[in-house]
Design a protein that fits this description.
Blueprint (H helix, E strand, L loop, with lengths): L4 E9 L9 E3 L2 E3 L2 H14 L3 E6 L7 H5 L3 H10 L3 E3 L9 H10 L4 E2 L3 E3 L4 E2 L4 E6 L2 E9 L3 H5 L3 H5 L1 E3 L2 H12 L6 E7 L2 H10 L8 E3 L11 E3 L2 E4 L7 E10 L4 E11 L9 H18 L2 E4 L4 E2 L8 H14 L3 E5 L7 E2 L2 E3 H7 L6 E7 H11 L2 H5 L7 E3 L3 E6 L4 E7 L2 E2 L5 E7 H5 L1 H5 L3 H5 L5 E4 L2 H10 L12 E4 L1
Helix pairs in contact: 3-9, 10-17
Amino acid sequence: MKKNLKKLTLLHSNDFHGDFLAEQVDEKLIGGVSYLSGYVNKVRDEEKNVIYAIAGDMFRGSLIDSEYQGISTIHIMNLLAPDVVSLGNHEVDYGISHLLFLEKCASFPIICSNMYIKYIGKRMFRSHWIKKIDGMRVLFIGILTKDVLANTKSEGLTGMLVDLEDTVSEVGKICDSYRSADIDLTVLLTHIGIDKDKELAASLDPAWGVDIIIGGHSHTRMSEPCEVAGIPIVQAAIGTDQIGRFDIMVDTDNNCIDSYTWQCIPITSENCPRDMALEETINEYKEMTDQKYNHVLTRFPRAYTHPHRNMETELGDLMAEGLRDQLGLDLMLLGSGAVRRPTLGPIVTLKDYNEIFPYNTPIYSLKLTGAQLRHALQFMLREDNFIDEENGEWYQFSRGFFCEYDRPSRKILSLKMNGKEVEDDDLFTVGMQEFHYMNIEKFLQVSLDEIKTNGRPLEVATKSANVLQEYFDTHEHIEIDGEKRLVIHE
């Protein structure tokens, strides 16, 4: 018996992080929303049935995004015209209430099935979206990582009213509720990271009929899909330098995939036309931000780097040191994820600075005993944090701190402050940004109640980025000291 097959081309991106502009590499332009849009439009012209989906994190990472608190991003995304977008954890960076406003500005559906308002059990966003195309019905279900809850803790009552339900049960709930609508293809549009995607695929009931998982959050670059329980799982790395492409033959009688190919397409000036209308809009935003932010803030002797989150970096050392000096702390614990670019300098404009350190949040001063500091470090240096760069929390340390750690035995061999071995009853004044202070029990396994017995934590600065900017503005040719804070024996 002959199958009824229809071709569907499914394009996907994830983790844009405000990556709007093309970059010059080896005499060709790579990435940028203009070329990305050009490719999407080209495929839409060439193929009959095309859907373009984005798996979270449109926001945060560029000055164009942060200056307008996501409104510019929504404007640009409206012109890019994705068919459906799922929420990422950085979508809540400007606050839950602001996100609900931004959703109203979007001309595309934003979905998330597992984010709820506590106590009344009501979803905050639409859970799913069904695309009708050439007689087919394609079901998209949005799934968000629980990491988003850490971002809501500073929002007072609003943040406390947010909860995330179990992903597997939410998928089952949506699939069971809408299978009767003759769904030909079911796609999970997730933002939980590749490892969690694999766990999710293995936990799904085959009767739910999930066909594909398109993910984000872990910024995974793939050469081919990973299949778990017969479900292909894909991501398209990070930013706009590439786009994922499925070409699928859909069996519309049996509501499943008959066959597919997948590839990760590079977005370059060589193989993608420019979308000039979209480029003009981006350039208007760029010109406005350039006028405001292009003056030189400071100069370094050379560019300083922050290549990975789960390691000590020279740029992390420098930034932690500046905050410690400005605020008179014994130690600054700067979350590695707060440093959003891999390099800074040698000439540092205000634009460069705002893009690399966009979180202008309060800094809290708290007292930690030597025993608490040692316990926190032991937790940070757990094996999971070495292996999983994206999902753990790692810190950069200011000058005077020294820790020697033996990874095979998982033991701290030495912990010193200002050259003196730390004793359990020593007391240190430690600075942390609000996000990390509010989540210290989760990130460092030390409770706020326990900390408060040492003295009341204080908000010592209302805007951390302003404090560090002042340090850069008043210090020319800043050199890192070259002193290692962390020595790790492999």
